[in-house]
Amino acid sequence: MIISSTTDYRAAAQKRLPPFLFHYIDGGAYAEKTLARNVDDLADVALRQRVLKDMSQLDTSIELFGEKLALPVALSPVGLTGMYARRGEVQAATAADAKGIPFTMSSVSVCPIEEVAPKLGRPMWFQLYVLKDRGFMKNALERAQAAGVSTLVFTVDMPVPGARYRDAHSGMSGPNAAMRRYLQSVTHPQWALDVGLLGRPHTLGNISTYLSKNVSLEDYMGYLGANFDPSISWKDLEWIRDFWKGPMVIKGILDPEDAKDAVRFGADGIIVSNHGGRQLDGVLSSARALPAIADAVKGQIKILADSGIRNGLDIVRMLALGADCTMIGRAYIYALAAEGGAGVTNLLNLLEKEMRVAMTLTSVKNVAEITGDLLVREG
Ligand SMILES: Cc1cc2nc3c(=O)[nH]c(=O)nc-3n(C[C@H](O)[C@H](O)[C@H](O)COP(=O)(O)O)c2cc1C
To answer: Which pLDDT value is given to residue 379?
Structure first.
């Protein structure tokens, strides 16, 4: 199979993964309108082509929260990454590390913090959900701090899980789910051997460590359903801000008023995100939400953005719309599922190449020069 883009990696991932996993990654909430808009709205952003300015020297690096990033990109937190490739969090994190960008571990990863962090040359980022089980949250923060995690990504757009119809149909949840998953696994032998057999244990590593018992995939939906906390408000975040010593970034901001609240709260950054279209369907794409948020808070807080980025040109578009840095979810997960860590490395190299082409043809020599001036203003 010829691989030249995220689209190719998506197709390769679909071949390799049992359907319950592929659709868990690929799907979104309800009619998946926002999922589609994330990609389409970004692809519709037109940049001004500029030429003949000697673009032989380009710098794609940025400084963020005291860290140097080789690209204005970090890997978004993705739950169950160790189910898509053998010990997938380790493979994705080491690929990101080698490229010089941060990996963000999800709270609901397969590998625990302690399995991944020591293998990296740079500090990992860690994502925390607001869970009713505050004991877990405190324990996770203490362990993250002990493991040298630099940045805390606090996800706030999941006080309740979104309705994802594909999961019920695919066997991720719904009737006879365990039996359906088993049957799908044995008909996908490459995955069954690499991950099903050699990638064990299949537990939620961080939660299992905390509870001192294995929390399996079978328990995953139940645990999350029972533990998401709809009562959460800014007030509840204060103890975390006081407890956590490093930068704290709020993930799941889509409205300028919430962005201003994040500034008032004292967060170091926000991530403009709709969770990749997996939560409230019909909300604005990140690409469309971003400019108003940037107008409201740019310069007062670091603005990161994800949801819909599929190539290096999209990274430049998101920066031109107002982000200081971007994050990617499905793009690297498809590559990981298809080819493991080597796939993530290749994907990151592709993103860099595409970013360089976009920078060359818009005549920007470094990331600071990627501003709203690059946007074609219609009319
Ligand atoms: C399979 C999957 C699992 C995810 N799990 C988490 C998670 O555990 N925590 C979190 O904050 N976001 C999670 N997300 C959302 C991503 O962090 C990110 O916001 C989203 O994937 C960005 O959109 P993109 O996939 O279009 O790049 C998940 C996304 C996917 C696709």
So the answer is: 61
Give the C-alpha separation, 57 to 365, whole Å.
7
Using the atom order of ligand 1, give the atom closest to the CA of residue 104: 17
Q: Give me 107's structure tokens.
A: 């709270």
Q: So where are the chain's domains?
A: 7-373
What distance in Å separates the CA atoms of residue 70 and residue 12, rounded to the nearest whole number? 27
- Which residue matches tokens 């300015």? 53
318 within 8 A of 290, measured Cβ to Cβ: yes
- pLDDT tens readout for residues 253-308: 999 999 999 999 999 999 999 999 999 999 999 999 999 999 999 999 999 999 99
Q: Best mutation site among 275, 304, 307, 325 for ligand 1, i.e. most ligand atoms within 8 A of its Cβ?
A: 275
Low pLDDT (below 50) residues in the chain: none
pLDDT for the residue 227: 84
Is there a catalytic annotation at residue 275? yes
Place of tokens 């082409």: 357
pTM of the model as a whole: 0.98
Nearest protein Cα to ligand 1, atom 10: 77
Please check whether the domain covering 7-373 is classified as CATH 3.20.20.480: no
Q: Which of 73, 76, 103, 309 to mutate to test the pocket of ligand 1 (most atoms within 8 A of CB)?
A: 76
Nearest CA to ligand 1 atom 1: 25
Question: Which residue has its alpha carbon closest to ligand 1 atom 3?
Answer: 78
